[in-house]
Structures are given as structure tokens and as C-alpha cells.
């Protein structure tokens, strides 16, 4: 069994707890006990944490180890000096990647990482097996685009935390990284450096109108590319892959910083767009109709602040706020320092809308009425201000905390953590909350949701010892000049 957590273990005299009087909270011990109960063993080795331990509800697939769900658990264990479970998880998912992946008669790419896996025990033969899900069992049968990115990001976090480079340098790990990147860096018909994705391929794993070029995937893609550059060996195969990464990073950073960014000036420019323009001199490059601007965005946009919008594609701009994508943009330095500061300005200015009484809105605003029926396909779980459709997810607390520390605003994280602490244990660590302010436990939320527990612990430990941020955040690449001048097809 892994070691026992001591709440003061990582405290130091110069940590924010000392500086800001941020004392240990009684629920920390309860959180660690709950997290340890979720540990899954395979042949007497810990290999991950299941999604939830809620005996009051039908299990569905919550008894599986999800790649994206395990990330906050892994960070909690790394921050507590317990890397074994993380190493085992990385190796186990890497071996699953090498399996043949078929959905009906169609074979998936070699680099696809599983969405999840389940450990099963045969009591007759006294034998354990692992079954992976690459999307063939998922709701909507969508393969996870984000799993491979999270795997690379977690491998870098493990390496940074432990100082052990031998895992990443294993031929199997090097091959796994390259296979993931080959899927994403291959040339095709697309004219953009962003990744074209189906609905339901990430944390928002149901139909929510995020098909196209969702901000969450683009930010994770950017971060995984940067982490891969740090992990790849300098042999012939590694150098070839690194060259392709560097070219893509330059194109991707320019595209995202220019065309996905929205502030009051850019909003006003879009409001005045002309349409049906042609040639490289066009100002309205994507032929976005000004009449498609939603009314809410004019009130939502503060005079100081900005954010990366949800999606940009031909004749379409999804102006919704998505928390994970914007926080990852800050942590990966996809956002310039000015943009990172503007995102935090927006969060502070729109605290009621984005944080409310329980951190943190997964997206804002919610779809309602006819729009909800058409876009979600009348999904009863994604009704307005519930689940993915404007629900509040405690797991996002660790991302907000990391972004707040990186931008020098730990007080934002502290305020959000204290809000969460007032309810999470009392409410039995729900998966998500409903309502415009996040006042109600989600109508179908599982209790003792593992990443709600781990997300809180990671947020707490980072605020207590900001040096932990180094395993998940990347500094700005000085060689990648963050030029904000738009191309000839946009106004400057």
C-alpha cells in the first residue's frame, strides 16, 4: 500500500500558507482516504484510480480507470512523493496503445490511446485481465482525441517531479510519443494548423456543438507538442519528429493567438465585418456573419479582459467560454503573458457567472430552448445549466489554481478553494453541480467522484507549495515570438 499523507508534509516557511495564513483544512484527510479507496490494482500493483465509488447509483463505466480522469489523481500522488502508481499507469496505458483497435470493421490509428480500461478478476482461474475502451463502448462511439495528449503531459509531469528520465527514454515510450504525434502531424486537406475533431472526443464527451476545432483540444495539442519536445531523444527519429513539432507549434501559436482570441476590440471589429470577401486581402477571413454574434457576448465581455473562444471554422465562431481550454492555454504558454493576464481579468470580472457558489463552470453560457434541442439532440443529461451544458465541475479547481499561481494571482485560487471547501465533503464529493450559480448537486452526478477529490487536493497542495506548479506548467518559449500582428486577412 502507498504511503500515508501528512497535511503539512510539503509546507515550508516561504509557501503561500505561511504568507497568506492558508491553514490546513479538516477535509484534507478525508479527501486522501477517499482517493486511496479509489485505487485500482492489477496483479498486486497500483495502476490507476476508478472514476467514482458511488454504491448508491448504477455503475455504468464509473468503475473504470479513465486516462483524463486519472491525471489529477496522478498529480496528487506525485506531489505527495508517491510516483509508483503514476509510473505503472503510464506503462500500462502504453501497452494498451499497442493493441489493435477496431470499431465494427474500421481500424483506428496506431497512436490512439484508450479512453479508459477496466481490471477484471476471474475468481475461478484466480487471474486478472485488463480490457481497454478506445471508443467502441463510449457514448456516441467517439474515440478520445485528448487521451494521448494527457498521456504525454503526464509523462512529462512524472519526469519533472521525480527527475527520472529513464521512463521517458525507454524505446517503448519514445515510440508511443511518436505514434501519438504522427496521428496529429500528418498532412491532409485541412488549411488550418488546428486539429479537426468530432463532438464528444474530450472531457465534453457528449454532443455539445464543439465539433470542428474546439479550444480544449487545440490547447492540449499545443501543450502535448511542447512536452514532447522536452521528452524526445535526440536520435534520428526524435530529431525528425522534433522538426515537425517546431513547425506546427509556430503555425498553431500564431493561428490560436490571432483568430481564437476575443477581447473588446476584436469583438467590435467582428461586429463591423463585411461579408462575402474574396482573396488573401479579405478582412473577414472565415466569412463570419456579424448577425451571428450572440447577444449575451456583448454584456459578458468586460472592458478589461479577454479569452480564447470555443471554436473557429468557416462561417462559424463559437463564442462560448470553455474553462479547461483557457486554463491549459495559460499553463502551456499558448496564451501570451498579456492574454493570460486578460483571461484572469475576465474570471475576476465575471466571477458570479464563471465561479458562482461552486467552482467552476465548464462552459458559459448554457444552451436553452430550441438551440439546446438542435445542438445536443435533446440530451436529457445536458439540459440547461447542467452537466456539460453550463454545469459546475469541482475538478476544474486544480486548473484554475495552477493558472492563478502562474499569473501571480494566488488570491483567486484561494477564494475558489474556500468556496469548494464549504460544500464538497458535506455533499460527498459530487461529479458536478447544476444551476446558474452551481448551487445544486447535479441531478445525475455520481458521489465520491475521484477527480473531484483529486482536483481539490492538487489545488490545495499547489497553493501550499507553488513549486509543484513546475510539473504541469511550461514557461514561454522565447524562440517562439508571440507576435500579435494578424495576417493580411485580418485588421490589426
UniProtKB/TrEMBL annotation:
Keywords: Carbohydrate metabolism, Glycosidase, Hydrolase. This is Alkaline/neutral invertase. Belongs to the glycosyl hydrolase 100 family. Invertase that cleaves sucrose into glucose and fructose. SUPFAM superfamilies: Six-hairpin glycosidases (SSF48208). Its EC number is 3.2.1.26. The keyword Hydrolase applies. It comes from Datura stramonium (Jimsonweed). It comes from the Eukaryota. Gene3D superfamilies: 1.50.10.10. The lineage of its organism: Eukaryota, Viridiplantae, Streptophyta, Embryophyta, Tracheophyta. The keyword Endoplasmic reticulum does not apply. It catalyses: Hydrolysis of terminal non-reducing beta-D-fructofuranoside residues in beta-D-fructofuranosides.
Amino acid at each position: 500500500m502507498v504511503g500515508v499523507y501528512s497535511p503539512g508534509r510539503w509546507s515550508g516557511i516561504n509557501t503561500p500558507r505561511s504568507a497568506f495564513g492558508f491553514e490546513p483544512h479538516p477535509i484534507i484527510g478525508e479527501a486522501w482516504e477517499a482517493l486511496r479507496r479509489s485505487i485500482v490494482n492489477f496483479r498486486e500493483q497500483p495502476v490507476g484510480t476508478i472514476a467514482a465509488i458511488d454504491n448508491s447509483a448504477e455503475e455504468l463505466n464509473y468503475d473504470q480507470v479513465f486516462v483524463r480522469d486519472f491525471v489529477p489523481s496522478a498529480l496528487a500522488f506525485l506531489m505527495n512523493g508517491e510516483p509508483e502508481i503514476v509510473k505503472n499507469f503510464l506503462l500500462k496505458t502504453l501497452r494498451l496503445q499497442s493493441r489493435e483497435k477496431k470499431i465494427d470493421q474500421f481500424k483506428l490509428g496506431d497512436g490512439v490511446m484508450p479512453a479508459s480500461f477496466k481490471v477484471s478478476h476471474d475468481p475461478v482461474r484466480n487471474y486478472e485481465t485488463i480490457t481497454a475502451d478506445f471508443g467502441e463502448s463510449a457514448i456516441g462511439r467517439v474515440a478520445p482525441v485528448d487521451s494521448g495528449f494527457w498521456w504525454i503531459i503526464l509523462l512529462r509531469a512524472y519526469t519533472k517531479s521525480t527527475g527520472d528520465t529513464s521512463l521517458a527514454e525507454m524505446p517503448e515510450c519514445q515510440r508511443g510519443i511518436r505514434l501519438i504525434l504522427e496521428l496529429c502531424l500528418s498532412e491532409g486537406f485541412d488549411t488550418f494548423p488546428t486539429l479537426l475533431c468530432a463532438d464528444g472526443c474530450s472531457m465534453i464527451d457528449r454532443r455539445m456543438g464543439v465539433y470542428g476545432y474546439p479550444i480544449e483540444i487545440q490547447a492540449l495539442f499545443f501543450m502535448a507538442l511542447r512536452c514532447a519536445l522536452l521528452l524526445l531523444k535526440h536520435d534520428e527519429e526524435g530529431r525528425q519528429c522534433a522538426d515537425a513539432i517546431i513547425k506546427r507549434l509556430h503555425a498553431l501559436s500564431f493561428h490560436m493567438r490571432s483568430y481564437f482570441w476575443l477581447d473588446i476590440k476584436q469583438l467590435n471589429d467582428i461586429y463591423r465585418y463585411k461579408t462575402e470577401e474574396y482573396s488573401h486581402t479579405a478582412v473577414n477571413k472565415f466569412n463570419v456573419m456579424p448577425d451571428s454574434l450572440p447577444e449575451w457576448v456583448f454584456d459578458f465581455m468586460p472592458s478589461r479582459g479577454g479569452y480564447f473562444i470555443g471554436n473557429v471554422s468557416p462561417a462559424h465562431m463559437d463564442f462560448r467560454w470553455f474553462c479547461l481550454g483557457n486554463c491549459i492555454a495559460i499553463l502551456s504558454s499558448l496564451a501570451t503573458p498579456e492574454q493570460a493576464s486578460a483571461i484572469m481579468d475576465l474570471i475576476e470580472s465575471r466571477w458570479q457567472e464563471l465561479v458562482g457558489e461552486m467552482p467552476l463552470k465548464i462552459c458559459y453560457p448554457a444552451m436553452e430552448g430550441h438551440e439546446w434541442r438542435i445542438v445536443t439532440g435533446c440530451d436529457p443529461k445536458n439540459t440547461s445549466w447542467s452537466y456539460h451544458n453550463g454545469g459546475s465541475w469541482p475538478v476544474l479547481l486544480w486548473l484554475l489554481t495552477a493558472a492563478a499561481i502562474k499569473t501571480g494571482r494566488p488570491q483567486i485560487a484561494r477564494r475558489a478553494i474556500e468556496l469548494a471547501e464549504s460544500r464538497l465533503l458535506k455533499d460527498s464529493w459530487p461529479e458536478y453541480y447544476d444551476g446558474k450559480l452551481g448551487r445544486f448537486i447535479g441531478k445525475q452526478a455520481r458521489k465520491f467522484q475521484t477527480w473531484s477529490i483529486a482536483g481539490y487536493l492538487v489545488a490545495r497542495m499547489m497553493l501550499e507549495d507553488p513549486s509543484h506548479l513546475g510539473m504541469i506548467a511550461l514557461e514561454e518559449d522565447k524562440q517562439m515570438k508571440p507576435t500579435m500582428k494578424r495576417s493580411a486577412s485580418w485588421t490589426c
